Amino acid sequence: MDVYVSHLAALKDHHQITATEDIRTAQGLKLLSRGARLDEATLARLALQKLHKPLDQSVGIGGELDGAQLATLIVELAAQHPDGAALLRQLPLPLAELCSSLDRQPLLCQRLTVMRAVFPARFRRTLFGALLALAIVRSGNLRGLSLPGLFVAALARSIGLLHLPEAFMAREAQHSAEAQRQFESHPVVSREMIRRSVDPVTAEAILNQHERLDGSGFPRGSRAGTPSSEAQLLGLADWIAWLCLERVEAGAGRIAHALQPLRLFRLFWSGAIFNAACEMILVIGGSCPPLVSENERPAWLAALLARHQQTGRQLTALLEELGAATDEGPSHGQHQRRCLLQMLSRINTSSGLLSPEYERWIDHVRAQQLSVAYAEMDEVYLQLCCLEPLLQRTRLLCGAPEGEEVAA
Question: How many domains does the chain have?
Answer without folding.
Answer: 3
